[in-house]
Amino acid sequence: MVLNCKDVRREISNYLDDDISPEMRAALEAHLAQCKHCTAILDGTHNVLVLIADDRAFPLPAGFSARLHERLRRELESV
Amino acid sequence: MATEQTAEQKSTSSQDASADALLIARVLQGEKEAFYELIRAHEKSVYLTALSVLQNSSDAEEVSQDAMLKAFHHLADFRGESRFGTWLIKITLNEARMRLRKQHRHMWESIEGQSEEDESDYVSEEFGDWREIPSEALERKEIREVISNAVAALPEIYREVLVLRDIRQLSVAETAEVLSVRKEVVKTRLVRARLRLRDMIAPVTTSRGLFSRNPFRRGKRPWS
Fold it and tell me: B6-33: per-residue pLDDT in tens?
């Protein structure tokens, strides 16, 4: 199986998720070994996923938990 | 991440489910205080799910509170067929979408109207040698804003799947369940979301000179 850049873009996400057949993996890695552009896309996508998975990337608004618990307390009291 | 869970993940997931089941039983027996403990681990997922739909912090916070209250009132209906967290996120997504419809913002960005584009037609840009942002950079508000704005700029169908799968790290199956779509649809949307996000963040970060090389290696999960 020989892949072009378009094929690689379609599979890049499954490759990062390790959700790919051995045959597809081999073909994709053969392409990556000779394509700097697709390698850059793979590395960049990987790095973005590392960033957004970090718990600090998306903090809760200040006071969120306190306001949530206060509203719950108010409403649960009446139940 | 592989779609199938590892033995360790299954064990942790099973322990979480058992702990949740105990807390749910206590709440249903009248111990309301146990509900705070039950939802503690899910507060951020609930908020970010609401935010992914509403794109407004105040609305997302209000919907988060509404969703938590709804979960409390319907807790007896939870059958344990999915994780409690997944059930709660699904409630939140429905609440957020109802709020959006009330606001008539769907006239501008319709969930139903967004087409599934073929990701292979998408031309990802090249930014030379991509380098990693050090983890400490996330302490900087400026960097967090770049990431947050990029996520916000995604079309809603891609933003939702990215938030659930890559930010809150639900499995593909759980993401599909929450969104009421097939797993293949999740995967297709995920490709586009990830490539677009990379294309939005890369130019900004590449120009900051913050980086060290961090190529993807086989077998290494993005978030491990």
Answer: 555 555 666 777 889 999 999 999 999 9
> Has residue B51 been placed in a domain?
yes
Please check whether residues B77 and B18 belong to one and the same domain.
yes
How many other C-beta atoms can be found within 10 angstroms of the C-beta atom of residue A50? Answer: 20
CATH number assigned to the domain comprising residue B168: 1.10.10.10
Helix axes B43-54, A64-77, angle to 10 degrees: 100
Question: Which sign, positive or negative, has the C-alpha torsion B199, B141, B169, B99?
Answer: negative
Handedness of CA B167, A13, B157, B39 (dihedral sign): negative
Q: With CB atoms and an 8 Å threshold, state whether A56 touches B223.
A: no
User: Where in the sequence is the domain holding B175, given as residue range(s)?
Assistant: 131-206
Whether residues B100 and B53 share a domain: the answer is yes
Total structural domains in chain B? 2
Buried b or exposed e, range B205-215, using 16+ CB within 10 angstroms: bbeeeebeebe
Query: Cα(B178)–Cα(B42) distance, rounded to whole angstroms?
Result: 14
A13/B190 CB distance under 8 A: yes
C-alpha A24/C-alpha B192 separation (Å) is 19
- Complex ipTM above 0.85? yes
Chain B interface includes A30 (CB < 8 A) = no
* pLDDT of residue B140 exceeding 80: no
